[in-house]
Amino acid sequence: MTSQPGAEPIPVDGVRLFPHLKVFSGNANRPLAEDICRYLGIPCGNSHVGRFADGEVNVQIDENVRGCDCYVVQPTCRPVNENLVELLVMIDALRRASAGRITAVIPYFGYARADRKTSPRVPISSKLVANLITTAGANRVITMDLHAAQIQGFFDIPVDHLFAAPIFMEYFRRKKFTNLAVISPDVGGVERARAFAKRLSAQLVIIDKRRPRPNEASVYNIIGDVKDKTALILDDMVDTGGTLTKVAAKILESGARHVYAACVHGVLSGAARDLIEKSELEEMIITDSIPVHLTENSKIKVLSVASLMGEAILRNHQGKSISALFV
To answer: Which pLDDT band holds residue 221 (cuts at 50, 70, 90)?
Structure first.
């Protein structure tokens, strides 16, 4: 797996810099939690997260957290329900152990696509998940690139909504592309793509597509000029890869010279990896918000968000603004 250089640990000279700061991890993405702790210069919180014989989640916090500022790093990725329940039970365990403040750090927020009723008699599952996290005892949520920004309003507690765009920008600036076009694969992603294009001095292009059913889309029109350009498709996630590869093929048919993609969350369901490896894409960049195991020569490259998450945790702990992280 190719990844961005990890965050450098803060020198501590044998002294714990933040004695009341505790970062715990569920089983969903322990490597990311460890990288976050490395950035902060603290050890990962000592806990056991396992299963009872019947499959129920078994959590034991193995150190004193009374009055401490505690963070639980747990993306709710596949297996979604297992990881969600782990998060809830860990929050409950910390609350009952008299933690001073509990923050759920959810790099990838599952159920985010169920943010509204799209047909009769269907749930708004992301609101339900927000209620569960709040009821479990979380005082704050840190998350990243929500599929629907309005999910922030589903919580009755503060939500710090981070963006991976600065990490992507740094990577693509080093490539020194000329004649670049940033592609929004749908109307919902236009704001994200416009801001990205502005910072890279690139042209904005929008894809007009229709989604007749979940995980299936048809590409109709390209709004903008991609002829002889290097195209960068920007999206919040890649799931089955079907839409992404169709968009890449359509862009090349329209005269683009090269096509890259940057998708924050690599859900990569089913045969998505094979589809991407065989596609017209030259490279697809994702983050480690969801753990991904790749071959060395894969078209898929992984950038770390440990420094972004770690800095958000540090600033929250110290009562500082995190607005600088949005630049």
So the answer is: confident
* Nearest-angstrom CA–CA distance, 144 and 125: 18
Q: How far is CA 97 from the centre of its chain?
A: 29
CA distance 46 to 26: 11
- The answer to whether 254 and 231 have CB atoms below 8 angstroms apart is no
Whether 84 has a pLDDT exceeding 70, the answer reads yes
Active-site choice (198, 209, 229, 301) = 209
Alpha carbons 327 and 324: distance in angstroms, whole number = 6
CA 143 to chain centre: 7
C-alpha triplet 114, 116, 120: angle, nearest 5°: 100
| Omega cis (within 30) before 79 | yes
pLDDT digits (tens, 9 = 90+) for 33-69: 999 999 999 999 999 999 999 999 999 999 999 999 9
CA–CA gap between residue 193 and residue 187 (Å, rounded): 10
- Active site (annotated) includes residue 229: no
